[in-house]
Amino acid sequence: MPRIPRVDVGGEIYHVINRANARLPIFFTEGDYELFESILEEAQEKFGMWILAYCLMPNHFHLVLQTVKDNNLQKFMQWITLTHTQRWHTKNGTIGTGHLYQGRYKSFLIQGDKHLLAVIRYVERNPLRAKLVRKVENWNFSSLSRRLSGNPKKQKLLAVWPIEIPKNYLAFVNIPMNEKEEEMIRYSVDKGKPFGSDAWSDVMIDKYGLKATIRKRGRQIKGT
Fold it and tell me: Is 1 a domain residue?
């Protein structure tokens, strides 16, 4: 089966996800999460990536990124994956024991409007949806936690959103999402389908040659 084409164009917005090998946990302690966050900080400075949102989960992570240069997403993700693998094995005394991640990261394009808000909300709701916490603000390893921290050093990692943050965002992110909205985001993760209005998605599919790998399925968020 051919691989899904990798879109890596400057100025676009992407949802990126990568999972641990065999979906086994890779984050066990607070130090494990902090190790990855320190690598994320290094990568942001090294590659000039705009990090709009992120969330670390026990066996995977989500990033919402806006690229500045062409071909920068792949370099950014390769460096993070390799560096995290090396440092994780060093920390745990398991150098030479195999892959940490299941394979290539997955990514899909996001339209920079309410669809972007939906994906960021989806990403930052992950710990709540997984029942790891009772309120999303109780999870310490996400962009939401950094924004709420009031710590300028922590907040430096995060780029300004290209959309307005709702004034009631914290209450909004704690409310369950519409099931169809979640389903369409998960479908985009699985198939690499651009997430946006039907008209925008069709333009992106044609522009970046994604037709061969993406099946049409339903409509996007109601009203788009």
Answer: no
